[in-house]
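Hello Y.,

Per our agreement to keep a running log of every chain we model this quarter, I'm adding this entry. I've kept the format consistent with earlier entries: sequence first, then predicted structure.
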Amino acid sequence: MDKVESAKKAAAFRAVDNHIKDTHRVGIGSGSTVVYAVERLAQRVHKEGLKVTCVPTSFQARQLIVNNDLVLSDLEITPQLDVAIDGADEADYKLTLIKGGGGCQLQEKIVAAAADLFVVIADYRKNSRVLGEQWTKGVPIEVLPMAYRPVQMKIESKLGGKAILRQAKAKAGPVVTDNGNFVLDWVFDRTHDWQQVNQEIMMIPGVVETGLFVNMAKIAYFGMEDGTVKELQV
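Predicted structure for the entry above:
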């Protein structure tokens, strides 16, 4: 296992060990680091007999839950969660996050908001002083397909930078989210007041959700190159 994968695994295992208890209702995030969190959760369920209920943030997360023989639920049945564990594309020193590199930001934000505690797990490459320091692909913005062009124009005229329609890798045309929407990646060209920017973007008709997670995460675990885990709380 290379250093990045080892770092992801260390952060994920630490978060699951520190924050998931018996009877907990758990939001399961999406992405490569969450795979290790579910692996550790399954180990604890089968070894310690923990009884936990899992709510997914995406099709990928649902498959992880099912394939690891964990109890699957949804927000209709389990609308309040004890903890949500998810990755991030980048986190600043205040734990403002950019999420949505995998196109799951809408469901991820809904599940995180339903949890009493939102825990972030990531490797050392995602730990920045300010947003944009290491992540250069911009802020993902989920939009209704019919609105993507006017939204694109409004974002660029109001906030600068470029809002790029995300293209699919294994199909012709744009990425389509689990919710049937498109994704604009807004590549910003300066530091912003992220809370204000998030509100401005959300006010544009046709925007469904942004990948800016402001004042949501309370604690983050970053697996480091040397095998240690750095903890950041706000």
